[in-house]
Design goal:
Layout (H helix, E strand, L loop, with lengths): L2 H21 L6 H34 L1
Helix pairs in contact: 1-2
């Protein structure tokens, strides 16, 4: 799986989780909201790390 495919898959998972969490907001307690926010933030952080690694790989390739 290449960078673009993995990034897209992470973003799809993030969107799916957000839609699920927003579909039933009244059934969530504080813990549920914290869990949903943490999951969303974790996926966002994974995307940022993936982008950073991809950028560094491209910079290294351009120096060769």
């Amino acid at each position: 799986m290449n960078h673009a495919q993995l990034r897209m898959r992470l973003m799809e998972e993030q969107a799916t989780a957000a839609a699920e969490n927003l579909s039933k907001p009244m059934t969530k307690d504080a813990y549920g909201y914290g869990h949903a926010c943490g999951f969303h933030a974790g996926l966002q952080h994974a995307i940022a790390i993936l982008d950073d690694v991809h950028k560094r790989d491209n910079e290294t390739d351009n120096r060769l």
